[in-house]
Amino acid sequence: MAKSKRPAKTILNRRARYDYAIEDTLIVGMELTGAETKALRLGHGQLTGAYVTINNGQLNLINANISGTTGIRIPESEQTRSRRLLAKRREIERLAEVKQQGKTIIPLEILNQGRFIKLKIALAKGKKRYDKRETIKARNAERQINANLKRTRQA
User: Which residues constitute the domain of residue 112?
Assistant: First the structure.
């Protein structure tokens, strides 16, 4: 009898694309406890306000919230703890070089598609307020164009 496949639940950092101009992405592993793994598979995590630092040649995910449920107990002090990320040494060195140039490393999404739980991180540059306004204007213009096209097709 085959195992039933559950749909993969990815946890997105929706605010990241609004606040940052994303340049390059990388997928890294995460060092988690069993309860954290189970909670992430159920979709109980948040990346809002999280960021990645490099300390002593290691990547660390700071301020990511993984909360438990009734069956999964994660103490409140452990929910936002620093979690180590797993990447190759060359990748970490390259990220450190780019970070020296003023870029930030932000988490984009937690991938839960197979046996392992991975984190997609990105090299990004912070947007200014006027850049954010331009993004909103472009998105609204795109919506208007699509709505007008849809109306002309229906008529």
Answer: 11-128
Of 105, 109, 101, nearest in space to 123 by CA: 105
pTM of the model: 0.77
Task: Give the whole-angstrom CA distance, residue 155 versus residue 141.
Answer: 21
Residue with structure tokens 């919230």?
65
User: Has residue 105 been placed in a domain?
Assistant: yes
Angle among Cα 90, 93, 94 to the nearest 5 degrees reads: 85
d(CA 62, CA 107): 10
User: Averaged over 124-128, what is the pLDDT?
Assistant: 84
From start to end of 31-146, where are the E strands? 45-46, 51-55, 58-62, 65-66, 83-86, 104-111, 118-126
